[in-house]
């Protein structure tokens, strides 16, 4: 069985960062980096698609030597350095305000969230060990019910 037709070549390839280009300790897999460079050398642009913020994604994109656009914050920010500005699909301010409100209602919730929130543009991330059920129910019954948890 053939996986791909003879002579077929992709126009672009997208890769995740965490767990794909990195190991479980977030260290780069140099074999994966080399594969991305080979794709670029063959004229196939590589897109980084990640939950990471734009600053982290751009640093990796630049040092690897990629040419495709970047899809950051789980699709919330699309960007390429040649563009006038990033395409931000949602405002992270509303999510941050919702997190602050959550903490006022439930002091055990840390509204500051994860470190990379300092650079987030389209979302706000709490710690993964927070009470998801409590957060979801609280947001659904609040002025921020339009937000996805």
Description:
The chain is an alpha/beta fold and 149 residues long. The protein has 2 domains: 13-88, Rossmann fold; 92-140, no CATH class. The protein has 4 helices and 5 strands, in the order βαβαβββαα. Strands 1-2-3-4-5 form a 5-stranded mixed β-sheet.
Instruction: Give the assembly state of these chains.
Output: single chain
The helix/strand order is EHEHEEEHH
| Structural domains: how many | 2
Alpha-carbon Rg, integer: 19 Å
CATH topology of the largest domain: Rossmann fold
- Count of DSSP E strands? 5
Average pLDDT score? 94
Structural class: alpha/beta
Approximately what portion of the residues adopt beta-strand conformation? 5-15%
Ends distance: 43 Å
Contiguous uncertain segments of 5+ residues? none
CATH-scheme architecture of the largest domain: 3-Layer(aba) Sandwich
The CATH superfamily title of the largest domain? HAD superfamily/HAD-like
What profile does the largest beta sheet have? 5 strands, mixed
Q: In DSSP terms, counting alpha (H) and pi (I) runs of 4 or more, how many helices?
A: 4
Question: Fraction of residues in helices?
Answer: 25-40%
Strand order of the largest sheet: 1-2-3-4-5
